[in-house]
Amino acid sequence: MPDRLDQPRQPGLRLRPHYDPEAFGRLSEQIARFLGTARFLVYMTGFVAMWVLWNVFAPGSVRFDPYPFIFLTLILSLQASYAAPLILLAQNRQDDRDRVQNEHDRRAAERNQADLEYLTREIAALRMALGEVATRDYIRSELQRLQEDLQEDLQEPRTPVES
Fold first, then answer.
1. Predicted model pTM
2. Which of 45, 63, 78, 156 has an alpha carbon within 20 to 30 A of 20's alpha carbon?
3. What single string gives the DSSP state of each residue in 62-73?
4. What is the pLDDT of residues 66-96, one digit of tens each?
5. CB neighbours of residue 32 within 10 Å
6. What φ, ψ does residue 12 adopt, rounded to 5°?
7. Could you tell me the CA-to-CA distances from 45 to 22, 41, 122 in Å, in that order?
8. How far apart are CA 110 and CA 124, in angstroms?
């Protein structure tokens, strides 16, 4: 019976093995991080040096890869053929994380910009409102003027009002 598109497939025999892409990605990042360290370079240099020294100076019966070291070349090529895709996978995952982080940063910057514009408008409104409010210095000067007017009135002799 042919597969129906309106119904899910029944689980059956799978020819491909199942793997967790996230776990594989984390493993590839760990390997890529290690491949980019000085420790790896020291280990690889030591391995190659030991290989060459063994196959040059060891007795002929125990040499397993005589000059021109074809087996060593094969091993190094195999290591490079696995390292390159693992490094690319790690870089792609980092690019994805960077893209998500940049989007998050962009949204945060937009929110901050909106908050800043709001606060700027509020400060402008407060300044306009303060322009209409009597300040302490203005009230003092008015009170002083009134006091001086009262003192002048008290010092002038009063004339009786004629009826």
1. 0.55
2. 78
3. T-SS-TTTHHHH
4. 889 999 999 999 999 999 998 898 899 999 9
5. 18
6. -145, -160
7. 32, 6, 66
8. 21
